[in-house]
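Quick note —
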Amino acid sequence: MNTFDSGLNITPQTSPLNFEYGEDCFGPEVEYRKLNDIRQSLRDNTCTGPETVYAIAMNVGKKKHLKQLNKQHLLFGVVTYAEGQLGQEPVRSQGHIHKKSAYGQNWSTPEVYQIWSGSAVIYMQEYANDDPGKCYAITAEVGDVVIVPPNWAHATISADPKNPLTFGAWCDLDYGFEYEKVRKHNGLAWFPLLNPNGELLWVHNPLYGNTELIIKKPNDYSEFKINQKKSIYEQYENDPDLFLFVPEPHLREELWENFIP
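Predicted structure written out below.
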């Protein structure tokens, strides 16, 4: 299985889902998201699938960076998904919007993903209202970086049911999630389904207005000075200010207005 050198001595485990931290790393007790936790975002909320959908460890990193990360209000999280599928849908997270952060001048905060193993689709839509605005399905392979901008509703999808997805992400230390608008629409504007060959198909959610889904690879994000395919944790080590736009999105305000992921 193709994997990626994350730059962190943290090993995902799939049976059972967990993370093992190296001596030079810190990390919390792992949290688990169960199928019953995410049913309201699924097309078939009565479906069967793995009871534990994914494991999540928020606020991990190298011990030598802990004070610096806290001062910068930065958090690095890691997530690993179960193999299999949720009825006809792939294993995925529930749709949400990042809550507004007082530290970030009351902006909803962005997120910077990088795929460690498996294949992913980062689905995102501009709004969680009846008109979802722009809708993107960003296909990402091992090493790819994807940015979710402030205020956008999104979900992370494991695109290969036989190879569990693991990813790392830069987040705001004061992270939080808003689910109300997405749950009011019984999910996001497009549902991913798996055909018998394991290929993804997309079905529109009729509780939203008509909209186009754009399926694409991630941008290179050169405007953020991010190097695609190089560990985003190592990029932080080399330039500790590189991801300050995550807890402080106003620092890149001009880039969010016409953002294309």
